[in-house]
Amino acid sequence: RASALLKKLEVKPTDDEYETIKTSRWGNRDVYPIAHDKRTYGVYAYVSYWGTCGICLSSWTIGSSLIGIGLTAAQAMTAITIGMLIASCTAFLNGTPGAKHHLGYGMLARSAFGLWGSYFCIMLNVFQSFVFYGTQMYFGGQAFVL
């Protein structure tokens, strides 16, 4: 009975050209650009993705944290607005090559730093993800404590 359930949950293989790409040190089918007719993300997907980034717990606590350290409401809103503008500009600039060439972060790092240098960039991204995840876990834990 469990094997029948697992069989239903199994992802069926597709017969597209990406199945024939071999995995190597330089890439695999998950990191190469996707042909235009195979892309499924639309405006709704992008808006939903970036919207979820903006409603995380740490975003909700920025204003109260700044007021808690002594800023006025106007100063806190100004600081948040400037910070978000800077973050938006860097996200836009970082995403422009990906939007133009349809390559992800790892492949773009390889073009700038080579194969071995890109590992350093990827490890920086991994470390950043650990810090962000830890912050979210802390805020989530605080929500249960309060």
Describe this structure in words.
With 146 residues, this protein is an all-alpha fold. It has two domains: 37-102, no CATH class; 104-146. The chain has six helices and no strands. The longest helix is centred in the last third of the chain and has 41 residues, at 105-145. The N and C termini lie far apart (43 Å).
The biggest beta sheet is recorded as:
none
Radius of gyration over C-alpha positions, nearest whole angstrom: 21 Å
Q: Domains counted in the coordinates: how many? A: 2
N-end to C-end Cα span: 43 Å
- Secondary structure category: mainly alpha
Shape: extended
Give average pLDDT, whole number.
85
Q: Give the helix proportion (percent range).
A: 55-70%
Helix count, DSSP H or I runs of 4 or more residues? 6
SSE order, one letter for each helix or strand = HHHHHH
Low-confidence residue ranges: none
In terms of DSSP E residues, the strand content is under 5%
Number of strands: 0
Family: Belongs to the purine-cytosine permease (2.A.39) family.
Membrane topology: Multi-pass membrane protein
Main location: membrane
GO cellular component, one term: plasma membrane
Helix/strand layout:
Elements: H1 2-9, H2 43-54, H3 57-60, H4 62-68, H5 73-101, H6 105-145
Helix pairs in contact: 4-5
In short:
The chain is mainly α and 146 residues long. The chain has helices at 2-9, 43-54, 57-60, 62-68, 73-101, 105-145. The chain has six helices and no strands.
Keywords summarizing the entry:
2 domains; extended; mainly alpha; 146 residues; single chain
